[in-house]
Specification:
There is one protein chain. The protein is an alpha/beta fold. It has 2 domains: 153 residues, NAD(P)-binding Rossmann-like Domain (Rossmann fold); 165 residues, Dihydrodipicolinate Reductase, domain 2 (2-Layer Sandwich). The chain has 10 helices and 15 strands. Strand 1, helix 1 and strand 2 form a beta-alpha-beta unit. The longest helix is centred in the C-terminal third of the chain and has 20 residues. It is globular.
Amino acid sequence: MTYRMIQIGLGAMGLHWCDVALPPNIDDGLIEVVAAVDINPAALPVAQESLGLHPSQCYTDLHKAMAENRADFCTIVVPPAQHEAVVDAALAHDLHILSEKPIADTLAASVRIADKVKRAGVKMGVTMSHRFDQDKTSFREELRSGRYGALDYLVCHLTCDLRQRGSWGAFRHEIPHPLMIEGAVHQLDMLADLAGALCDILYAQTWNPAWGEYAGDSQALVTMQFENGSRAMFEGACTNAVGLKYWEQETIRAECELGTLLLNGRRLERFPYDPSTQRIAKFEGEGEPLPLLPGRKWKNSWLIEQFVDWLDGGEKMETNIEDNLQSVALIFAAIESSRTGQPVKVQDLLTQAMESL
């Protein structure tokens, strides 16, 4: 079945959706884009040029677009603070929803949205694209192969030079907690997924150095302990002098009983434990290289396919909104921990937010 959809948001990320994520699924006959929406009329030609929409199919009024076009679902590719309003409109028109991360810009709004979606009986997924990139998927499958024994801890480094105003999209320089809400939501989500358990305790320090042109915190150091006993550390930086571990080029390392698994700049290698050489140091690039998994679709393109399969009656996508509350709980636990200077019990924080509805 081909599902009819409305694309909401045609800014920088919306352009990526129109140019990269949607076309493979259009070509496969999984979706048909029937309308596109952006509050900025200057952005509407994006949908006309990339998707071949007629100008009459492009709107600045969200409700008018939904009222005038029969659709099965909508995408949400707008800043997080606007997500709840778009969700409300979609539910008013009985549409399923596929949204960019995070669910919303606050934990309270995130749990409200999840509750509204559940009560409406519609399906909503969140596109945690980094987790479903080719290199991260290959790392996850290798880690879960059983060849490395028990997982001890994980480390992730993301370091960028995006300190100047406007270098990371203008709105991110104005919002509170830009790194956590717009960036680290991906990396903390990936670490929890790799750990294979819910996060129990999280401690974070976030800040903005004097040279970072941000209204909110652009740097972070986070430690996490999971319910299965494994641990993780995250270094996130938007205002460094150079981007050594840039977006999609992160370093992720898994330290396990029987080996070390390393992903560095999309290069995957393993270092099996050898007791006969335990005093000999090895360096990045000296491990056994592993090929990345083959595949035609990755990231949002793959997630759109998973969402459509779910609409078709298939397995619920991993990043359905109820499960994805764990992802937003991580970033708001980090924000709370930095504010108080104390570790946060992540599941307690999420439970309290849900009970406050």
